[in-house]
Specification:
The longest helix is centred in the C-terminal third of the chain and has 42 residues, at 450-491. Strand 9 and strand 10 form a beta hairpin. Strands 1, 2, 3, 6, 7, 8, 9, 10, 11, 12, 13, 14 and 15 form a 13-stranded antiparallel sheet that branches. Helix 1 packs antiparallel against helix 10 (450-491). The protein has 494 residues and is an alpha+beta fold. 29% of the residues lie in helices and 26% in strands.
Length: 494
């Protein structure tokens, strides 16, 4: 039975157009309101609040992370002092590890930040590795010797004392760790009489080695005391996003300080994200991506990555940032990178483009970081050695994330550690050419799991359902408007 059959024509007109307005209202809600609600609810999952998806992933590390280590084997080290023979290197590995991050001593602060320490654990995966981490052997520069040389070279008195003591005690028989196990030179420690002697002197007569920061290790290893250590990476303080979600995951202080003492100005500033938790981006940031700032504790500094276009992972749209030639420029081409130089300002730049001095945050060891195989570095570094072949596909630093959530989609964090070898004035380094030799390089790999991909897809599904339903209702509304207009003009006449 018609509910408005007895209504006046005016009432029919009013009710018909009210119905049209209601349909358009539902269309607007489903087309605009529902996606906005989905976005707002989803945003709450992307802040560092207990119970949120991002927080729980961060706590227990549900997304697998891999750490590949490639070691450089110096095959003709017996020709080290022959300037007519270039050092030759053979790449060993990768030795693949599952890397797990555990958070400890977590404190939530009143200023919407969180303070914590992290424990990094590496678990060897032999079936994914090339070679045997436990039995493979390599030859690599004697880093402790180069560290001592770098410290004493500008002090003639200290240089004379150290040279005499090293010679008198017969502490070294060469400038390399010769034919040592990879597992020892990376984690366990290579027997090093010089390091053992320095530690003894540091305990009983520290004035003899004043100025030399001696690592308290039983033997030398590049990753000594790092595996399963809750202290090594320091104390982090970062934003939770509970005040402004754009602060999620951004570093505020490291080891209690907003700046690191090793670099000047912007280069010493603690900022950016650690890469595992990032702030969701706004629509304007997604449309006009800026540089991505990543704080890397192994560098004691942040690096600035350049936007390099769009990216897709199993139907999920993302954006990619890469390390370009600006990252390790040292002020040669880009004035803003001058603060990377650790020498007095008037002497900068000291290094040619492509290397980054991390000696100050590594016990004074003359370590220089580059991209693998000297990719994007000044050609002189590559031409000084043989065996390295840089390619963008294999050696570029890449970071892809989902802008709306800030969740990393894929990560290929690639860095190479090099040793500055030269004649430091010690008898044992006599005749060594001034050269930068590769020691090893690493790749930290992350690929988002299918489970996490499906969770992100659900957001898009709900938003799309709302949009499609909104458009459908909009079409129904338009048809209803035409019908109501026709009846109002042609049928429901006064």
């Amino acid at each position: 039975m018609c509910c408005c059959c007895n209504c006046s024509n005016l009432s029919k007109k009013v009710w018909s157009f009210v119905g049209v307005v209601i349909i358009f209202g539902f269309a607007a809600f489903f087309g605009f309101g529902l996606p906005a609600i989905v976005d707002a609810v989803a945003r709450t999952e992307f802040i560092m609040e207990p119970g949120s998806q991002v927080y729980e992933n961060w706590i227990d590390g549900q997304v697998p992370m891999y750490f590949d280590i490639y070691f450089w084997d110096w095959t003709n080290s017996e020709e080290a002092t022959n300037e007519n023979v270039r050092p030759n290197f053979v790449q060993r590995g990768p030795y693949v590890f599952l890397e797990r991050h555990e958070r400890h001593f977590i404190e939530r602060n009143a200023d919407h930040t969180i303070t914590f320490k992290q424990n990094r654990t590496w678990i060897y995966i032999p079936e994914q590795s090339n070679g045997d981490f436990y039995t493979d052997r390599v030859t690599t520069p004697q880093t402790i010797l180069m560290t001592v040389g770098a410290v004493v070279q500008d002090d003639p008195f200290l240089l004379m004392i150290m040279d005499g003591l090293i010679t008198a005690n017969n502490l070294l028989d060469g400038v390399t760790y010769e034919n040592v196990l990879v597992q020892d030179v990376l984690f366990n420690g290579v027997e090093d009489p010089l390091l053992e002697w320095l530690n003894g002197i540091a305990e009983w007569q520290p004035e003899l080695i004043e100025g030399i920061e001696v690592p308290p290790w039983d033997g030398f290893a590049y990753f000594a005391e790092r595996n399963n250590s809750v202290e090594y990476d320091g104390v982090f303080r970062m934003g939770t996003g509970t005040d402004i979600w754009s602060n999620t995951g951004l570093m505020v202080t490291w080891n209690g300080e907003p700046n690191v003492p090793y670099y000047r100005g912007e280069c010493g500033k603690v900022h950016g994200s650690t890469g595992q938790v990032n702030p969701p981006m706004t629509s304007s940031q997604i449309e006009n991506p800026e540089d991505f700032i990543l704080f890397v504790t192994d560098l004691c500094s942040a690096i600035r990555l350049k936007y390099d276009g769009d990216f897709e992972l199993d139907g999920i749209q993302g954006s990619v940032w890469i390390g370009d030639n600006r990252v390790f420029d040292n002020g040669n081409t880009f004035p803003e990178t001058e603060c990377q130089c650790t020498a007095p300002v008037e002497e900068c730049p000291v290094l040619k483009p492509g290397l980054f001095d991390v000696s100050e945050c590594n016990f004074g060891a003359p370590l220089l970081v580059s991209f693998p195989h000297f990719y994007l570095a000044d050609p002189s570094y590559l031409n000084a050695v043989t065996g390295l072949t840089p390619t963008r596909q294999l050696h570029e630093f890449r970071y892809a994330l989902h802008p709306f959530s800030g969740i990393p989609l894929t990560v290929n964090g690639r860095l190479q550690y090099n040793v500055h070898v030269k004649d430091y004035g010690l008898q044992i380094t006599n005749g060594l050419p001034d050269m930068v030799l590769p020691a090893f390089w690493v790749e930290q790999r992350v690929v988002l799991t299918q489970e996490k991909i499906d969770e992100l897809k659900l957001i898009y599904t709900l938003r799309d359902v709302g949009k499609y339903l909104g458009w459908a209702l909009f079409g129904v509304g338009c048809l209803a408007f035409i019908v109501a207009f026709y009846f109002s003009v042609a049928v429901w006449k006064d």
